[in-house]
Amino acid sequence: MLNKAQMLNKIKEHYGFQTDSEFANHLGVQPQVLSNWKSRKTFDAELIYSKCKQLNPAWLLCQEGSMLNKKRAALEVHEEKTPYFLKKSIENLEKQLVRLQDTYQIIEESKDFFHKVIQETERQLHQQKKLLKES
Q1: φ, ψ for residue 9 (rounded to 5)?
Q2: The whole model's pTM is what?
Q3: Is it the case that residue 99 has pLDDT exceeding 90?
Q4: SS (H, E, C) the chain
Q5: pLDDT of 47-73, one tens digit each?
Q6: pLDDT at residue number 76
Q7: HSE of 79 in the Cβ direction (CA atoms, 13 Å)?
Q8: Residues 69, 13, 71, CA angle at the centre, nearest 5°?
C-alpha cells in the first residue's frame, strides 16, 4: 500500500511533471504546500481530484481500484495538447536550443584553437626535421 507521499509522486509522474514545483503550479498551490504534504504524508484529495480529473476518486481516497478513472480519462483532452504542457514543451525546446548553440560555439572556438596547435606542431616538426638533416 502506498503512502500519500508515494501517491503524490505517482500522480506527478503520470502527468509528466519533471519537478515538484511544476506539479504544485498545476495544482495551484505553493511548492512548500506540496512539500509539507509529502513530509506529513497527507494531501488535499478534493483539490487534487479537481485538478487531476483522470484520477479514480476511490484510489485517491482509499487506494481501491486503479489510479485512473478510465471512463473519465477517455473523455478528457490529452494533456500534452493543453496550454500548460505546450508551454512547458516550448520552454524545454528553447533551453535545448540554447545548450546546442552554446555547444556549437564551444566547438567552433575549439576548432580554431586546434587548428593553431596543429600549425604550431607542424612548424616544430619541420624545424626538428631540418635540424636533424643539418646535424
Answers
A1: -65, -40
A2: 0.54
A3: yes
A4: CCCHHHHHHHHHHHHCCCCHHHHHHHHCCCHHHHHHHHHHCCCCHHHHHHHCCCECHHHHHHCCCCCECHHHHHHCCCHHHCHHHHHHHHHHHHHHHHHHHHHHHHHHHHHHHHHHHHHHHHHHHHHHHHHHHHC
A5: 999 999 889 999 999 998 899 987 765
A6: 54
A7: 15
A8: 10
Query: 33: which 3 cell numbers?
Result: 504546500
The grid coordinates listed for 126 are 619541420
Alpha-carbon gap, residue 21 to 45, rounded angstroms: 18
pLDDT of residue 75: 52
Cβ atoms within 10 A of the Cβ of 24, count? 19
Contact 33, 24 (CB under 8 A): yes
